[in-house]
Amino acid sequence: MKMIEIKSLTKDYKNVRALDNVTLTFEENKIYGLLGRNGVGKSTLLNIITDKVFPSQGEVLVDGEKVSNNDEVLGKMFLMNEKNYYPESMKVYEIFNWTNEFYPDFDLVSAFELADKFKLNTKSKVKALSTGYASIFKAIVALCSNTKYILLDEPVLGLDANHRDLLYKVILDRYANNPKTIIISTHLIEEVSSVIEEIVIIHNGKVLLQDSCENVLSSGYTITGKIQDVDEYIDGKDVISTETFGGLKNAYVKGKPQNVPSSLEVSKLDLQKLFIQLTNDKEGI
User: From residue 161, how far is each of 8, 105, 157, 165 by CA, in Å?
Assistant: First the structure.
């Protein structure tokens, strides 16, 4: 089966364990959200997948082959890194042309069309780009690479609301026309929830959750009301977490709502709030 397989992956940096026995898969033709707070190991994982960083233990397979020192396999992937590794003195259009030489399926026409859509000046040098336009430039190169696996590390860094919305639309449009595996690494959960199909949550170097977005959001519900009414209702139920504000209380509950009093309001789980509660470092989570 065509997929990225990560097996028992551990990465240590001196006294810091960035990844701790991570095992998961990214199947073909799906959009994944690799979700986690800053510094929890997302970027390390993407760099190990693309053989830019070596693991302390474990291995990565792409379509059944090891990625380590395997140029053929590495050519199936393109990583948009959060950091800039392009020569800063080069101009945007020069890097488009340069990438076209190394990636045979690179869509040069689309790269210039997208640059025009985002109002990215292709004659600008990389070092002259703002943080937002540097993200746009790197995202365009990645998306137009037309590799089988596209990995985007914090692709909306520095983008304003309009550009973020446009980038998500471009991702979905290109995916619809040419399905592939896209992994979006981000800590901006609310925005990406309408784009992704599968969720992987990483916390403190470990996989906290891997499931479809639909399954996660349908696995429970939110109950809202006066504190006393909510407490009475959730007594004995499988409660993920609660939060209070003023005299009101929210409870995130696993399962399906049953016999809910009229004094309480029921709503769907909110992915962003669920993520915050799951990654708040309480014991047992």
Answer: 38, 31, 11, 6
